[in-house]
Description:
The chain is globular. It contains 11 helices and 17 strands. It has 354 residues and is of the alpha/beta class.
Amino acid sequence: MKVDAFGANGPDTPFAHLEIARRPLRPNDVQIEIAFCGICHTDLHQVRDWPNTRFPCVPGHEIVGHITAKGSAVTGFETGDTVGVGCIVDSCQECEACEAGLEQFCAKGFTGTYNAPTQDPPGYTMGGYSRSIVVDQDYVLAIRHSQQDLAAVAPLLCAGITTYSALKTWKVGTGQTIGVVGIGGLGHVGIRIARALGANVVAFTSSDSKRDEAARLGATDVVNSRDSGDVGRYTEKLDFILNTVAASHDLDPYIALLKRDCTMAMFGAPNKPHPAIDVRLLFRRRRSLSGSLLGGIRETQEMLDFCAKHEIVADIEMITAHQIDDAFDRLLRNDVKYRFVLNAKSLARDKDAL
Length: 354
């Protein structure tokens, strides 16, 4: 099956219309007509920065849409269902991690929604900047938000599960005070989820313009991360820190804010290493510095249901296919509040499709 898509033919070429192949339905597959696809910083890195990219590259791993066909063995979904596809479309299903529902840690490596090796033409996966996609039902997620919120649900398939999984892993909940460093695509969703879990949230931002934004999102206090005195108000007072900043920065001031036996989890992947930490900060209060990666399929479904119950979505700016390059440029400048979402109808060759 041929479908309309937008992709890049090289790291320095603009996005353009492509016609790509989707595999015929297998017994366990569903075919999804894509309504919206979020645009993630990973998409930008994959197209413009990382050396392992296969071209033409069609990014997109924050997919929402509706099932238009299903294979003969599909039991969990029906035609017309509203569903999502996140960052994982396959895994070995045999290793300890997969059996535990932690496909993101598959011993053989999970199959990403784009740029991952596959037996299907053209030999690697192509993502959600397309009109439809075919996915094994075991990697498809039910979406129970209202239809009017679907575009704003899309970023939850990456930003939502990334923050939710960490907050659940480190048992964040009622009565705790946690820090969220960086109020961007991940941070703004993390604040909302942490508040819904019952925690008090201290937002750390270097931008004074985001102080009111952080409060609107649910932060109980906002700290200027460039002001050591302001940061120091929380020395040894935080139960957990969600650090979403991708730029290289000094971690010591944040580690010092943790109580005994508490953790700061890292999510941003900087283009150059963070400065070396003072390990004595870890010794003195048995603190931990850790990281987290996405979440498994079961946990992603749990996250979506939790967010639907608490009416949590992302703050988005809708774009069309012909605005993708501009959106990537703006991502580089952090010029979005807080996630771009692509209207998939605009991917048709006919610009009048909208």
